[in-house]
UniProtKB/TrEMBL annotation, chains A, B:
The lineage of its organism: Bacteria, Pseudomonadati, Bacteroidota, Flavobacteriia, Flavobacteriales. Residues 521-613 form the Non-reducing end beta-L-arabinofuranosidase-like GH127 C-terminal domain. It comes from Flavobacterium phragmitis. This is DUF1680 family protein. InterPro entries: 6-hairpin_glycosidase_sf, Beta-AFase-like, Beta-AFase-like_GH127_C, Beta-AFase-like_GH127_cat, Beta-AFase-like_GH127_middle. One of its GO terms (biological process) is carbohydrate metabolic process.
Length: 618, 618
């Protein structure tokens, strides 16, 4: 097995790092509703999501907690509010997950559940459009007095759910509730009205979604107004009555941001909203800021797993290179936020470096957030464990389970995109996609055993008419050696642009592209400024970061040495942890180290775990 | 608890490093027969040694193996030789241990056992003086043909046993056997006779002992001749017919040695013999060589435990700074050899740096060689273990158990010494000593809880007449802060010479010296060239090196981080491991690390262990 050492600065390779965004690129994602995932890695996860994750969330929302009852009570304007002031958002996020699931897996019973919830939600909306069960049940006199009480955050998730359910079923009821809430907010806040800095961003990107569906530009403008509210001293009362401008990203106008600070999920949602607004307004007013904070996140504040926000203290960022392993926070929601933001950055630049980060987060930090069984969740994703950190069925603050519930069924969104000139292939996931490009219709099949294997076969199964466009294949940053063949003939003189191999011809039905990527085990090094990882290395193969669990390393745990001479063997084990490529070191039996994918840890008995391992340069 | 970081180069502090030996110092040790150990650390070990260790060795030699039967068979000149060609030495070393035990604990039954053995040994001596059961029983035609077959090594241990038993009982029989064997050797080897380079040194220092008892200068001359045989190409057939000059310290004349090489026990015995011969000849012909190899051993090739010889391959030295932990060899015999050699170096220089090393080896690498129960032994002393390295009751090559059997009862040798001008106090061990100095007789009492506490009280209990001499108290290299009081008055303007505090007055009966040494927990760093310990630290308190066993650190093993802010708590636990000072880190309960003395590891269930621990400078 080939093995190489790559010195990387958290993210080990950055295509085009330092470039400014190319403004004339505008990639539209192929919505997951058009992509049928058929592979053996994600497809079982999607099935499990419908069968297990969603049901877990539904049971928690309907029965085990008072989340749905809060809406019923609010509808009756009586009874107590239970839980925390932002709990409404979990119901909305689960509804978003249900919507996505219904798109690819119609299920009348599930739709009935959603309709029932939506009725209860709608009943909780006041006549002025306001909807928030916490204030309705604890005192409406206090609404819109504390910027950190998540009223706009919950509204944002309401909107995202409304849009998703409308797209899944054509039913507008929830969307209307959301739109009515937006109108309520716009009646109070905006140019010449009250100032407001949402303590937890989310509303901005949701308003952009609402704009995309309704084409009502006022919503985009309101999103823009909310972004521009920041950094002018308008932020006032936050949690506990205090307002920490760093924690809330309210230190300076967002266009002037250079560094990340504060709560990591809020950052991701803010940056997503900024990327959205700039793109739809067709300007580049946030480009410099976005490039700068992206560097700050990815080069100085990201774990090898693609997780971010190292501190439990603020659920967010601390000093550069402060990336503890045992005490890593790396909230699941923030990693999903990394996918959201990086996808948007890619769509407005055509640079694959954003998909490299997206992929790193998705296959590692995000996927670790849910158990193989689909019914247990991590809120916090450390890179080392003493065996006392375990997934739970639910959390008091349940943002992460509900985040997983809406993210997993949407992963089809991130595979393909189209722009004026090109079809973009970003992720390698076995699937069949109905793609509208130019005025042509293409069915594109992708066959691959990714992430376990780097061979990919793309077949233009049907095409309504010959198509003269580029097909751009992302060459992942982890990939050091690859070849591409077109209808069986190796392509020489390949053009590589911002990490994409550019293939240009008049495409016809039956055309076949094969991409063969070497996928050796790599020994990764963190930036020397990450003190926690000094003298240590991590193992990665393809996009998958590996770890050691004591379970598989009873004799050697605590003595896990790698050297530059360490050789690795890989073998697919279909019976372990849902089917994984295992890696073991090629040592004498008593010294073998057995690695499993990081995402698959803590799925057996409680076990110690570590990603970064002692390394000796001898 | 005060805590400091000391950067040390294996040995963390070297008093007078680089000095040449002062030739006019000649310290005579106070023999252990004059020192009654009364403390709570060593006294139980001496009792246990008599009750357990010796009986284990006796049972192995008499019954479980053929070691004693070899002598019986050799006496009959018939029967087979069992075991290995050097097994006679184990019988001699056990006899030496029995002799030392009889001195302080007369035991007619034990003496009867020794007499019985000695009769069997004597019966095995040929009429020409040759004694070696291996050749007698496998073919005398081959004797003196292979320099690595340990004939002189066994003869050396015979002499040491003979001297010891003579001193213990006044019985000369075994001494005579040894002397006769020496005469046999001197009839074959020497100036104008055959050349011979003993493959395993030992005979040289034994001949010096024989000279000291018999005053026959021929034995000293023969020792000198044997030392001078080396490095001239006389070494020929060794083990497997080959002769590796590095392995056998035969690369150059011993006076020209600059670096250590080869088998570590052989080195220690060679250097001990060189130090002895030079001292008794009253010259300094080996001084430069001894200083140079001492630096090489201590500064570049010694573990923090005082163990040496890192490689299993040659049971010896490899490259400088090659000090693996898990795979450390660090043979028990070699650590005892460090005590032997460093004691001699101290006696001819009056430099305490040698006692610092002696003490380090004695309390750590040597003491780990025997179980708390006294009946199990380590041959190999790693500084880390996966739990699969355990003491055994005996070994095929049993040099280490028999080495322990003779070393432990002799530790009283290393506490005091006298020279023309001074009484030297080297080790702090509660005891009562009958000291002859000048023409006076002194009874000196030492009270201390060393090594757990740095307070020492020395009382001149009786003195035949007032005595005008220096009393020199060793200030250990580990000690950074101390004070001395004389009859209750703190001594100011202390003179410190080569690591000794020099007290001068006319001593009288009843005089009392108190030495108070601060004994904080220290975080020790290895030389940066020791790759194995990069980014790691070890814990030491006083002379005791500590380790972590998984047994006491179930939750945290594998995640043992120290930082410069780590605080320590110490507490004496009389019920654990024979009574030890435990050290724990002052962290939240789930992060506490529990340290035990290195010497006490592997005395409970099989457990992983490590001395060097990850350290973060934050």
């Amino acid at each position: 097995m080939k093995k190489s050492i790559i010195f990387f600065s958290i993210l080990f390779c950055l295509n085009g790092f330092g470039q400014t965004k190319a403004k004339n690129i505008h990639i539209e994602p192929i919505n997951f509703s058009k992509v049928k995932i058929t592979d053996s890695f994600w497809q079982p996860r999607l099935k499990n999501h419908a069968a297990s994750t969603l049901n877990t969330c539904i049971a928690q929302i309907e029965s085990n907690t008072g989340r749905l009852t809060n809406f019923v009570n609010a509808g009756k304007r009586s009874g107590k509010h239970s839980g925390i002031f932002y709990d409404d958002s979990d119901v909305y996020k689960a509804l978003e997950g249900i919507s996505y699931t219904l798109i690819n897996n119609p299920d009348p019973k599930l739709e009935q559940t959603a309709d029932d919830w939506i009725n209860k939600i709608a009943s909780a909306q006041l006549s002025d459009g306001y909807i928030n069960t916490y204030y309705t049940l604890t005192g409406l006199d206090k609404r819109w007095t504390n910027m950190d009480k998540h009223e706009m955050y919950c509204a944002g998730h309401l909107i995202e759910a409304g849009v998703a359910y409308y797209q899944a079923t054509g039913k507008r009821k929830l969307l209307d509730v959301g739109e009515k809430m937006v109108k309520h907010m716009m009646s109070i806040f905006g140019e010449g009205k009250r100032h407001w800095v949402p303590g937890h961003e989310e509303i901005e990107l949701a308003l952009v979604k609402l704009y995309s569906v309704t084409k009502n530009k006022k919503y985009l403008d309101f999103a823009n107004w909310l972004l521009e509210e920041r950094g002018h001293g308008y932020g006032t009362t936050g949690g506990n009555g205090e307002w920490d401008v760093k924690y809330y990203q309210d230190e300076k106008p967002v266009a002037d941001l250079t560094d990340v600070s504060g709560h990591s999920v809020r950052c991701m949602y803010l940056f997503s909203g900024m990327t959205d607004v700039e793109k739809l307004e067709g300007n580049s007013k946030y480009t410099k800021a976005l490039n700068s904070v992206w560097d700050d996140v990815v080069l100085r504040n990201m774990y090898i797993t693609g997780g971010i926000g190292s501190s439990k203290q603020n659920e967010g960022f601390t000093e550069d290179y402060d990336l503890p392993n045992l005490d890593a926070y790396s909230e699941t929601c923030a990693s999903v936020g990394m996918v959201y933001w990086n996808s948007r950055m890619n769509q407005s630049t055509g640079d694959s470096k954003y998909v490299d980060v997206l992929e790193r987060s998705m296959y590692n930090a995000v996927l670790a957030g849910v158990s193989i069984s689909g019914d247990k969740f991590f809120y916090v994703n450390p890179l080392a464990s003493k065996g006392d950190h375990n997934r739970k069925a639910w959390y008091g603050t349940a943002c992460c389970p509900s985040q997983i519930s809406r993210f997993i069924p949407s992963i089809g969104n991130y595979i393909y995109g189209t722009s004026d000139n090109a079809l973009w292939v970003n992720l390698y996931i076995g699937s069949s996609a109905d793609i509208a490009i130019g005025n042509k219709k293409m069915v594109l099949n992708q066959e691959t055993n990714y992430p376990w294997n780097g061979d990919v076969k793309l077949t233009v199964q049907s095409l309504s008419a010959p198509l003269k466009k580029e097909i751009r294949l992302r060459i992942p940053a982890w990939c050091k050696k690859y070849s591409i063949a077109l209808n069986g003939k190796t392509v020489t003189n390949l053009v590589l642009e911002k990490g994409y191999a550019v293939l240009e011809k008049e495409w016809k039905s039956g055309d076949q592209i094969t991409l063969s990527m070497d996928m050796p085990v790599e020994i990764e090094k963190a930036d020397d400024r990450v003190k926690e990882d000094l003298g240590k290395r991590a193992i990665q193969r393809g996009p998958i970061v590996y770890c050691l669990e004591e379970e598989d390393n009873k004799a050697n745990f605590g003595f896990e040495n790698l050297t530059k001479d360490t050789k690795f063997e890989t073998f697919y084990n279909p019976d372990l942890l849902g089917g994984i490529m295992q890696i073991k070191t090629d040592a004498s039996p008593k010294d073998v180290l057995n690695f499993i994918p990081y995402y698959s840890w803590d799925n057996r008995a409680d076990s110690k775990m570590k990603v970064w391992i002692d390394y000796k340069d001898k």
